[in-house]
Amino acid sequence: MSYRDFIAEHRRLFIMQLLSEIGGSASEDIVYQGVRQGFRPVKGVTRDVIRADLEWLHARHLLAFDWLEDTLLVVELTERGGYVVSGDIEVEGIKVPDARR
Q1: Residue pair 11/53 in contact by the 8 Å Cβ criterion
Q2: Are 82 and 94 in contact (CB under 8 A)?
Q3: Residue 73 three-state SS
Q4: What confidence tens digit (pLDDT) does each residue in 2-51 have?
Q5: Quick one: which of 5, 76, 82, 90 could link to 25 by a disulfide (CB 3.0–4.6 Å)?
Q6: Distance separating alpha carbons of residues 86 and 80, to the nearest angstrom
Q7: How far is the C-alpha of 74 from the C-alpha of 37, rounded, in Å?
Q8: CA distance 90 to 81
Q9: In the sheet where 72-77 sits, what is the strand order?
Q10: Per-residue pLDDT, 44
Q11: CATH classification of 3-83, choosing from 1.10.10.10, 3.40.50.2300, 3.40.50.10190, 1.10.260.40?
């Protein structure tokens, strides 16, 4: 696995864990700010990268999208996404969460 893929797997899990921790849904901007503040390494994490990750997760039915007035994207963790966060299922391309104690 390349370093780029390794970081992408971790970043996608981080996005889903962030959503889980803040109630399951947030605007795209809140997700972006959360990743910029809490994910390391932050170098190269642009809005385009986050949008691509959100679309990648959406395509795998891990996130749902809701557009408010065609201008604000709200993303919501799906039930399946919650299973990934809890470690109950694994999805290729997302880091398996560490076992919780």
Answers
A1: yes
A2: no
A3: strand
A4: 999 999 999 999 999 999 999 999 999 999 999 999 888 778 889 999 99
A5: 76
A6: 10
A7: 19
A8: 10
A9: 25-27, 72-77, 63-68
A10: 81
A11: 1.10.10.10
